[in-house]
Amino acid sequence: MSQQQKQPKQPKQPKQPKSQQQSTPTSSQSQSQSQSQSQSPSQPQQTEKKSPLYNEIKDHLTQETYELKDQGYCLDKNETKAKNRFTNKNIIITGGSGNFGSRCAERFASEGANIIIWDIVDSSKVVQQIKEKYNVNVRGYMVDVSNEDNVKQAVANVVNEFKRIDLLFNNAGYQGDFVKTHLYDVDDFRKTMNINVTGVFIVLKYVANAMIEQKPQGGAIVNTASMAGHSGPPNMIAYGTSKAAVVHMTRIAAKDLAPYNIRVNSVSPAFIGPGFMWTRQIELQAKADSQYYNSDPKVVKDQMINSTPLRRYGSIDEVLGPVAFLLSDDASYLTGVDIQITGGMN
């Protein structure tokens, strides 16, 4: 899942104990077809104008957020969440300037990890926020995950800077259009596959090679899939197909990389909100003129929520909890697993 909309400002947290420090770093990745050439992935990222992945004119979204106010069951809590599991670990987060990526960066920094953000857009604000709140190393690079040479060089730069890669959240992605199969644009289909399948594979390949070569050998990887890859949602032929590929890629990679002490798992979120992606899927499903969703976005919101036993959407943190678990030593006997984060929806 791609992420463009910024999260609300989080309350100031106490700094983590000072970790072993390399030189202090900067970061970024959400994804679009073309890579900005103004910055080499080997250099800390400079602030530059953000180029949105999505066509705002074509989507023509409103400012409505379709938020839920304390609706549903088993609401998100913080009482028993794990802490301080990743001190001095180095994590690469792709799509790091978007909703999921930036929240993931903050979550892992709060548990002591050093943060490497890859994105095709500028994420210097995210990097600065983490630097101000946590005593960890943070570096950002301009990286187009669909560009093999770009990813290969970025991995080499991270190894040179941080000496090893312990964790990867392979998260960058693109939601694609919401159009019936026979009307779907071939160029957008290719774009979705290039980012969500080829891009995920390229990052997986080169990070895995770095994990194989480092000593001690190994690491943990989580790929972002989606329930769209399991349920076959209408009007999402490209996205659903691409995420089914990510689930299968995860299973195969888990078998291939097990002898090298690398675990590979995935997560498949369903309806997650509020935010840009939540608003976009509601409004574009309403415009898709299908028998499955109403033409009124507010009715579509209710249709989606009522399809989940918990009668609510999930929060980003409710996705990142399972991600952190899969990347932690608590999941040391789990590989090739996909966790469906759905509120009970099959």
- In spatial order, strands of the major sheet run 3-2-1-4-5-6-7
What is the architecture of the domain at 82-272 and 314-341 at the second tier of CATH?
3-Layer(aba) Sandwich
Query: What is the CATH domain class of the domain at 82-272 and 314-341?
Result: Alpha Beta
Report the strand count.
7
Head-to-tail CA distance between termini: 19 Å
Structure description:
By secondary structure, the protein is α/β, with parallel strands linked by helices. The protein has a domain at 82-272 and 314-341: NAD(P)-binding Rossmann-like Domain (Rossmann fold, 3-Layer(aba) Sandwich). The chain is 37% helix and 11% strand. It is built from ten helices and seven strands. The chain has helices spanning 56-59, 99-110, 124-133, 148-162, 186-213, 228-231, 237-257, 276-287, 297-306, 316-327; strands at residues 90-94, 114-119, 138-142, 167-170, 219-224, 262-269, 338-341. It has a seven-stranded parallel β-sheet with strand order 3-2-1-4-5-6-7, sandwiched between helices. The longest helix is centred in the middle third of the chain and has 28 residues, at 186-213. Mean pLDDT is 87; it is low at 1-50.
Topology:
Blueprint: H1 56-59, E1 90-94, H2 99-110, E2 114-119, H3 124-133, E3 138-142, H4 148-162, E4 167-170, H5 186-213, E5 219-224, H6 228-231, H7 237-257, E6 262-269, H8 276-287, H9 297-306, H10 316-327, E7 338-341
Parallel strand pairs: 1-2, 1-4, 2-3, 4-5, 5-6, 6-7
